[in-house]
Amino acid sequence: MESKETNLQLAFQLISLMQNDNFDYIYRGLFTKSITENILNLSEAKLHIADENTSVINKHVYLVMVECLQNITRHQERPTEKNIEDTALFMIQQKNDRYLITTGNLISNSNISKLKEDLDKVNGLDVTELKSYYKHMLKTGIISHKGGAGLGLISMARKSRSKLSYAFSEVNNQLSYFYFRVEVLFDPDLPLTDFTESFENIISIHKILNLENILLNFNGSFNKDNIINLLPIIETQINESINIKNRVLQVMIDMLQNIVNYSVPILIESVNQNLDGNPGIFYLSQNKHDFILTAGNYMNNHHIPVLKRKLDFVNKLTYDKLITFHDRLFDYFSDNEITKPDLSIIEMRLKSKHSLNYRFDRVNDEYSFFTLQAII
Fold first, then answer.
1. 359 vs 55, more confident
2. Angle formed by the axes of helices 52-75 and 151-160, nearest 10°
3. What angle separates helix 199-211 from helix 10-20, to the nearest 10 degrees?
4. pLDDT tens digits for range 115-129
5. Selection from 357, 351, 353, 350 nearest residue 373 by Cα
6. What's the rounded Cα separation, in Å, for the pair 263 and 368?
7. C-alpha 49, offset from chain centre
8. How large is the angle between the packed helices 340-352 and 319-335, nearest 10 degrees?
9. What is the Cα–Cα distance from 205 to 18, expressed in whole angstroms?
10. pTM for the full model?
11. Which of 11, 52, 175, 325 could pair covalently with 296 via S-S, beta carbons 3.0-4.6 A apart?
12. Domains parsed from the chain with CATH numbers
Protein backbone atom coordinates (compact mmCIF):
# COMPACT_ATOMS: atom_id res chain seq x y z
CA MET A 1 0.00 0.00 0.00
CA GLU A 2 2.95 2.30 -0.61
CA SER A 3 2.27 5.58 -2.39
CA LYS A 4 3.32 5.54 -6.06
CA GLU A 5 5.16 8.32 -7.86
CA THR A 6 2.80 10.36 -10.05
CA ASN A 7 2.72 13.78 -11.64
CA LEU A 8 0.93 15.74 -8.92
CA GLN A 9 1.83 19.07 -10.52
CA LEU A 10 -0.22 18.26 -13.60
CA ALA A 11 -3.62 19.19 -12.13
CA PHE A 12 -2.51 22.73 -11.32
CA GLN A 13 -0.72 23.06 -14.67
CA LEU A 14 -3.81 21.90 -16.55
CA ILE A 15 -6.29 24.08 -14.69
CA SER A 16 -4.00 27.08 -15.18
CA LEU A 17 -3.69 26.39 -18.92
CA MET A 18 -7.43 25.90 -19.32
CA GLN A 19 -8.51 28.84 -17.22
CA ASN A 20 -6.34 31.16 -19.27
CA ASP A 21 -8.61 30.33 -22.20
CA ASN A 22 -11.80 29.83 -20.12
CA PHE A 23 -12.23 26.17 -21.04
CA ASP A 24 -15.45 25.01 -19.41
CA TYR A 25 -15.17 21.40 -20.42
CA ILE A 26 -12.66 19.15 -22.16
CA TYR A 27 -13.29 15.50 -23.01
CA ARG A 28 -10.61 13.26 -24.49
CA GLY A 29 -11.56 9.68 -25.15
CA LEU A 30 -13.49 7.33 -27.37
CA PHE A 31 -16.78 8.64 -28.72
CA THR A 32 -19.88 6.47 -28.80
CA LYS A 33 -23.57 7.35 -29.02
CA SER A 34 -24.13 7.04 -25.26
CA ILE A 35 -21.00 9.03 -24.41
CA THR A 36 -22.02 11.73 -26.88
CA GLU A 37 -25.42 12.02 -25.21
CA ASN A 38 -23.83 12.45 -21.78
CA ILE A 39 -21.35 15.00 -23.12
CA LEU A 40 -24.26 16.99 -24.53
CA ASN A 41 -26.08 16.82 -21.20
CA LEU A 42 -22.95 17.90 -19.35
CA SER A 43 -22.24 20.74 -21.78
CA GLU A 44 -25.86 21.86 -21.89
CA ALA A 45 -25.70 22.49 -18.14
CA LYS A 46 -23.05 25.12 -18.88
CA LEU A 47 -25.38 27.22 -20.97
CA HIS A 48 -26.98 29.85 -18.77
CA ILE A 49 -30.44 30.88 -19.94
CA ALA A 50 -31.15 34.33 -18.50
CA ASP A 51 -33.54 35.82 -21.00
CA GLU A 52 -35.07 35.26 -24.42
CA ASN A 53 -31.95 36.37 -26.30
CA THR A 54 -29.60 34.04 -24.44
CA SER A 55 -32.08 31.22 -24.89
CA VAL A 56 -31.80 31.61 -28.67
CA ILE A 57 -28.00 31.75 -28.47
CA ASN A 58 -27.88 28.63 -26.28
CA LYS A 59 -30.09 26.78 -28.73
CA HIS A 60 -27.62 27.60 -31.51
CA VAL A 61 -24.69 26.51 -29.32
CA TYR A 62 -26.40 23.21 -28.55
CA LEU A 63 -27.19 22.52 -32.22
CA VAL A 64 -23.60 23.30 -33.21
CA MET A 65 -22.34 20.93 -30.49
CA VAL A 66 -24.55 18.18 -31.89
CA GLU A 67 -23.12 18.73 -35.39
CA CYS A 68 -19.53 18.78 -34.08
CA LEU A 69 -19.95 15.53 -32.14
CA GLN A 70 -21.64 13.87 -35.12
CA ASN A 71 -18.68 14.87 -37.27
CA ILE A 72 -16.30 13.15 -34.84
CA THR A 73 -18.24 9.88 -34.69
CA ARG A 74 -18.79 9.89 -38.45
CA HIS A 75 -15.39 10.94 -39.79
CA GLN A 76 -12.66 10.00 -37.29
CA GLU A 77 -10.02 7.59 -38.56
CA ARG A 78 -8.90 4.48 -36.67
CA PRO A 79 -5.10 4.01 -36.75
CA THR A 80 -3.70 0.59 -37.53
CA GLU A 81 -0.57 1.23 -35.45
CA LYS A 82 -1.05 0.40 -31.75
CA ASN A 83 1.23 3.20 -30.54
CA ILE A 84 -1.01 5.94 -31.99
CA GLU A 85 -3.84 7.25 -29.83
CA ASP A 86 -7.18 7.06 -31.62
CA THR A 87 -9.03 9.11 -29.02
CA ALA A 88 -10.85 12.25 -30.08
CA LEU A 89 -11.29 15.61 -28.37
CA PHE A 90 -14.22 17.89 -27.51
CA MET A 91 -13.95 21.32 -25.83
CA ILE A 92 -16.28 24.18 -25.03
CA GLN A 93 -15.17 27.66 -23.98
CA GLN A 94 -16.92 30.89 -23.09
CA LYS A 95 -14.90 33.96 -24.02
CA ASN A 96 -16.52 37.30 -23.25
CA ASP A 97 -18.93 37.68 -26.17
CA ARG A 98 -18.94 34.19 -27.65
CA TYR A 99 -18.92 30.44 -27.12
CA LEU A 100 -16.14 28.46 -28.79
CA ILE A 101 -16.73 24.80 -29.58
CA THR A 102 -13.60 22.87 -30.57
CA THR A 103 -13.12 19.27 -31.65
CA GLY A 104 -10.11 17.21 -32.59
CA ASN A 105 -9.87 13.84 -34.31
CA LEU A 106 -7.54 11.79 -36.47
CA ILE A 107 -7.94 12.04 -40.24
CA SER A 108 -6.09 10.52 -43.16
CA ASN A 109 -3.53 12.86 -44.71
CA SER A 110 -4.99 12.00 -48.10
CA ASN A 111 -8.26 13.67 -47.05
CA ILE A 112 -6.74 16.96 -45.89
CA SER A 113 -6.70 18.67 -49.28
CA LYS A 114 -10.41 18.01 -49.94
CA LEU A 115 -11.37 18.99 -46.39
CA LYS A 116 -9.48 22.30 -46.64
CA GLU A 117 -11.17 22.94 -49.97
CA ASP A 118 -14.62 22.37 -48.43
CA LEU A 119 -13.85 24.55 -45.39
CA ASP A 120 -12.46 27.41 -47.47
CA LYS A 121 -15.44 27.18 -49.80
CA VAL A 122 -17.89 27.51 -46.88
CA ASN A 123 -15.87 30.32 -45.29
CA GLY A 124 -15.95 32.27 -48.54
CA LEU A 125 -19.76 32.47 -48.67
CA ASP A 126 -22.03 35.06 -47.09
CA VAL A 127 -25.34 34.25 -45.33
CA THR A 128 -27.44 34.29 -48.51
CA GLU A 129 -24.92 32.26 -50.48
CA LEU A 130 -24.68 29.68 -47.67
CA LYS A 131 -28.45 29.18 -47.76
CA SER A 132 -28.39 28.62 -51.54
CA TYR A 133 -25.34 26.37 -51.32
CA TYR A 134 -27.01 24.29 -48.60
CA LYS A 135 -30.08 23.72 -50.79
CA HIS A 136 -27.86 22.89 -53.76
CA MET A 137 -25.82 20.33 -51.80
CA LEU A 138 -28.98 18.86 -50.31
CA LYS A 139 -30.16 18.07 -53.82
CA THR A 140 -26.93 17.23 -55.61
CA GLY A 141 -24.24 16.58 -52.97
CA ILE A 142 -22.27 13.34 -53.28
CA ILE A 143 -22.54 11.31 -50.11
CA SER A 144 -19.15 10.26 -48.76
CA HIS A 145 -18.47 6.67 -47.68
CA LYS A 146 -18.78 7.84 -44.06
CA GLY A 147 -22.05 9.67 -44.58
CA GLY A 148 -22.84 13.34 -45.06
CA ALA A 149 -22.31 15.55 -48.08
CA GLY A 150 -20.48 18.50 -46.58
CA LEU A 151 -23.86 19.55 -45.21
CA GLY A 152 -22.58 19.53 -41.63
CA LEU A 153 -20.00 22.25 -42.35
CA ILE A 154 -22.55 24.40 -44.13
CA SER A 155 -25.09 23.89 -41.36
CA MET A 156 -22.61 24.89 -38.64
CA ALA A 157 -21.58 28.00 -40.56
CA ARG A 158 -25.24 28.99 -40.95
CA LYS A 159 -26.20 28.34 -37.30
CA SER A 160 -23.12 30.05 -35.88
CA ARG A 161 -23.02 32.90 -38.42
CA SER A 162 -19.26 32.77 -38.18
CA LYS A 163 -16.26 31.48 -40.09
CA LEU A 164 -15.02 27.96 -39.34
CA SER A 165 -11.49 27.80 -37.88
CA TYR A 166 -9.25 24.79 -38.33
CA ALA A 167 -5.69 23.50 -37.93
CA PHE A 168 -3.79 20.30 -38.69
CA SER A 169 -1.07 18.63 -36.62
CA GLU A 170 0.80 15.83 -38.37
CA VAL A 171 1.08 12.50 -36.54
CA ASN A 172 2.92 10.52 -39.24
CA ASN A 173 2.96 10.07 -43.02
CA GLN A 174 -0.55 8.62 -42.99
CA LEU A 175 -2.43 10.53 -40.28
CA SER A 176 -2.88 14.00 -38.83
CA TYR A 177 -4.97 15.49 -36.06
CA PHE A 178 -7.67 17.77 -37.37
CA TYR A 179 -8.64 20.59 -34.98
CA PHE A 180 -11.90 22.34 -35.78
CA ARG A 181 -13.60 25.29 -34.09
CA VAL A 182 -16.95 27.01 -34.41
CA GLU A 183 -17.76 30.35 -32.75
CA VAL A 184 -21.28 31.27 -31.68
CA LEU A 185 -21.50 34.99 -30.99
CA PHE A 186 -23.80 36.34 -28.31
CA ASP A 187 -24.57 39.16 -30.73
CA PRO A 188 -24.49 38.22 -34.46
CA ASP A 189 -23.54 41.81 -35.32
CA LEU A 190 -20.29 41.64 -33.33
CA PRO A 191 -17.10 41.49 -35.43
CA LEU A 192 -15.39 38.12 -35.69
CA THR A 193 -11.99 37.67 -34.09
CA ASP A 194 -9.16 35.54 -35.49
CA PHE A 195 -8.59 32.78 -32.91
CA THR A 196 -6.09 30.86 -35.05
CA GLU A 197 -3.21 31.34 -32.59
CA SER A 198 -5.19 29.87 -29.68
CA PHE A 199 -5.03 26.47 -31.38
CA GLU A 200 -1.46 26.33 -30.09
CA ASN A 201 -2.73 26.18 -26.51
CA ILE A 202 -5.28 23.51 -27.43
CA ILE A 203 -2.63 21.42 -29.18
CA SER A 204 -0.36 21.77 -26.12
CA ILE A 205 -3.15 20.64 -23.77
CA HIS A 206 -4.03 17.76 -26.09
CA LYS A 207 -0.41 16.56 -26.15
CA ILE A 208 -0.36 16.55 -22.34
CA LEU A 209 -3.62 14.58 -22.21
CA ASN A 210 -2.21 12.03 -24.68
CA LEU A 211 1.13 11.77 -22.89
CA GLU A 212 -0.50 11.13 -19.51
CA ASN A 213 -3.18 8.90 -21.08
CA ILE A 214 -5.95 10.96 -19.51
CA LEU A 215 -9.21 9.26 -20.43
CA LEU A 216 -11.42 12.08 -19.28
CA ASN A 217 -10.73 15.58 -18.05
CA PHE A 218 -13.34 17.94 -16.63
CA ASN A 219 -12.49 21.52 -15.74
CA GLY A 220 -14.89 24.20 -14.61
CA SER A 221 -17.84 24.34 -12.27
CA PHE A 222 -18.76 21.31 -10.19
CA ASN A 223 -22.28 20.67 -8.95
CA LYS A 224 -24.55 17.64 -8.44
CA ASP A 225 -25.75 17.69 -12.06
CA ASN A 226 -22.13 17.40 -13.28
CA ILE A 227 -21.57 14.34 -11.12
CA ILE A 228 -24.67 12.61 -12.52
CA ASN A 229 -23.53 13.16 -16.11
CA LEU A 230 -19.86 12.37 -15.48
CA LEU A 231 -20.47 8.96 -13.92
CA PRO A 232 -21.73 7.12 -17.04
CA ILE A 233 -18.92 8.64 -19.13
CA ILE A 234 -16.32 7.37 -16.67
CA GLU A 235 -18.01 3.98 -16.43
CA THR A 236 -17.61 3.38 -20.17
CA GLN A 237 -13.85 4.00 -19.92
CA ILE A 238 -13.25 1.21 -17.39
CA ASN A 239 -12.96 -2.19 -19.08
CA GLU A 240 -12.13 -4.04 -15.89
CA SER A 241 -13.86 -6.29 -13.35
CA ILE A 242 -16.99 -5.11 -11.53
CA ASN A 243 -14.93 -4.82 -8.35
CA ILE A 244 -12.37 -2.47 -9.95
CA LYS A 245 -15.06 -0.47 -11.73
CA ASN A 246 -17.05 0.00 -8.51
CA ARG A 247 -13.98 1.07 -6.55
CA VAL A 248 -13.07 3.65 -9.21
CA LEU A 249 -16.61 5.03 -9.30
CA GLN A 250 -16.91 5.16 -5.50
CA VAL A 251 -13.62 7.04 -5.10
CA MET A 252 -14.59 9.34 -7.95
CA ILE A 253 -17.89 10.20 -6.26
CA ASP A 254 -16.09 11.04 -3.01
CA MET A 255 -13.62 13.26 -4.86
CA LEU A 256 -16.30 15.09 -6.83
CA GLN A 257 -18.50 15.60 -3.79
CA ASN A 258 -15.56 17.10 -1.93
CA ILE A 259 -15.11 19.65 -4.73
CA VAL A 260 -18.84 20.41 -4.78
CA ASN A 261 -18.99 20.87 -1.01
CA TYR A 262 -15.62 22.34 -0.06
CA SER A 263 -13.99 24.09 -3.01
CA VAL A 264 -13.55 27.83 -2.52
CA PRO A 265 -14.84 30.05 -5.38
CA ILE A 266 -11.81 32.35 -5.32
CA LEU A 267 -12.00 35.78 -6.86
CA ILE A 268 -8.91 36.12 -9.02
CA GLU A 269 -8.66 37.19 -12.63
CA SER A 270 -7.51 33.80 -13.96
CA VAL A 271 -10.62 31.98 -12.75
CA ASN A 272 -13.80 32.09 -14.81
CA GLN A 273 -16.47 33.60 -12.59
CA ASN A 274 -19.37 32.52 -14.82
CA LEU A 275 -19.69 29.26 -12.91
CA ASP A 276 -22.78 27.53 -11.58
CA GLY A 277 -20.97 25.64 -8.83
CA ASN A 278 -17.46 25.51 -7.37
CA PRO A 279 -14.32 25.66 -9.55
CA GLY A 280 -12.12 22.61 -9.81
CA ILE A 281 -10.68 19.89 -12.00
CA PHE A 282 -11.07 16.12 -12.17
CA TYR A 283 -9.41 13.65 -14.49
CA LEU A 284 -9.03 9.91 -14.84
CA SER A 285 -5.83 8.50 -16.32
CA GLN A 286 -4.51 4.99 -16.82
CA ASN A 287 -1.16 3.25 -17.04
CA LYS A 288 -0.32 -0.44 -17.52
CA HIS A 289 -1.34 -1.42 -14.00
CA ASP A 290 -3.47 1.32 -12.44
CA PHE A 291 -6.28 3.79 -12.77
CA ILE A 292 -5.26 7.19 -11.40
CA LEU A 293 -7.98 9.55 -10.17
CA THR A 294 -6.95 13.15 -9.63
CA ALA A 295 -9.04 16.03 -8.32
CA GLY A 296 -8.05 19.61 -7.59
CA ASN A 297 -9.74 22.64 -6.09
CA TYR A 298 -8.97 25.96 -4.44
CA MET A 299 -8.90 26.32 -0.66
CA ASN A 300 -8.01 28.87 2.02
CA ASN A 301 -4.39 28.75 3.13
CA HIS A 302 -5.27 28.67 6.83
CA HIS A 303 -7.04 25.30 6.33
CA ILE A 304 -3.94 23.59 4.91
CA PRO A 305 -2.16 22.55 8.17
CA VAL A 306 -5.23 20.75 9.54
CA LEU A 307 -5.97 18.99 6.23
CA LYS A 308 -2.33 17.95 5.86
CA ARG A 309 -2.30 16.41 9.36
CA LYS A 310 -5.46 14.43 8.57
CA LEU A 311 -4.05 13.10 5.30
CA ASP A 312 -0.74 12.15 6.88
CA PHE A 313 -2.51 10.42 9.77
CA VAL A 314 -4.72 8.34 7.45
CA ASN A 315 -1.79 7.46 5.19
CA LYS A 316 0.38 6.13 8.00
CA LEU A 317 -2.22 3.64 9.34
CA THR A 318 -2.06 0.03 8.25
CA TYR A 319 -5.07 -1.29 6.36
CA ASP A 320 -6.40 -3.24 9.38
CA LYS A 321 -6.00 -0.28 11.72
CA LEU A 322 -7.67 1.95 9.17
CA ILE A 323 -10.73 -0.34 9.01
CA THR A 324 -11.02 -0.31 12.80
CA PHE A 325 -10.62 3.47 12.93
CA HIS A 326 -13.20 3.90 10.16
CA ASP A 327 -15.76 1.72 11.94
CA ARG A 328 -15.38 3.66 15.17
CA LEU A 329 -15.50 6.99 13.38
CA PHE A 330 -18.54 5.93 11.37
CA ASP A 331 -20.40 5.01 14.57
CA TYR A 332 -19.46 8.35 16.04
CA PHE A 333 -20.49 10.14 12.86
CA SER A 334 -23.94 8.50 13.02
CA ASP A 335 -24.70 10.00 16.44
CA ASN A 336 -22.59 13.13 16.66
CA GLU A 337 -21.33 15.98 14.54
CA ILE A 338 -18.12 15.34 12.62
CA THR A 339 -16.89 16.96 9.44
CA LYS A 340 -17.53 14.89 6.31
CA PRO A 341 -14.01 15.37 4.87
CA ASP A 342 -12.62 13.31 7.76
CA LEU A 343 -14.76 10.33 6.75
CA SER A 344 -14.34 10.68 2.99
CA ILE A 345 -10.53 10.78 3.28
CA ILE A 346 -10.58 7.48 5.15
CA GLU A 347 -13.04 5.90 2.69
CA MET A 348 -10.97 6.94 -0.33
CA ARG A 349 -7.87 5.45 1.29
CA LEU A 350 -9.72 2.17 2.03
CA LYS A 351 -11.28 1.87 -1.43
CA SER A 352 -8.06 2.64 -3.29
CA LYS A 353 -5.90 0.43 -1.00
CA HIS A 354 -3.02 2.87 -1.53
CA SER A 355 -1.84 5.97 0.27
CA LEU A 356 -3.46 9.17 -0.98
CA ASN A 357 -1.10 11.50 -2.83
CA TYR A 358 -1.57 15.21 -2.33
CA ARG A 359 -0.01 18.58 -3.08
CA PHE A 360 -0.64 22.25 -2.29
CA ASP A 361 0.25 24.95 -4.84
CA ARG A 362 0.17 28.48 -3.44
CA VAL A 363 -1.86 30.92 -5.57
CA ASN A 364 -1.58 34.02 -3.37
CA ASP A 365 -1.54 35.00 0.32
CA GLU A 366 -5.13 33.85 0.78
CA TYR A 367 -5.61 30.80 -1.44
CA SER A 368 -3.85 27.64 -2.59
CA PHE A 369 -4.69 24.92 -5.08
CA PHE A 370 -5.15 21.50 -3.47
CA THR A 371 -4.52 18.36 -5.54
CA LEU A 372 -5.66 14.96 -4.25
CA GLN A 373 -4.88 11.71 -6.02
CA ALA A 374 -5.98 8.10 -5.51
CA ILE A 375 -4.55 5.06 -7.32
CA ILE A 376 -6.53 1.88 -7.96
1. 359
2. 160
3. 160
4. 999 899 999 988 899
5. 357
6. 11
7. 22
8. 150
9. 8
10. 0.79
11. 11
12. 1-22+242-376 (3.30.565), 31-212 (no CATH)
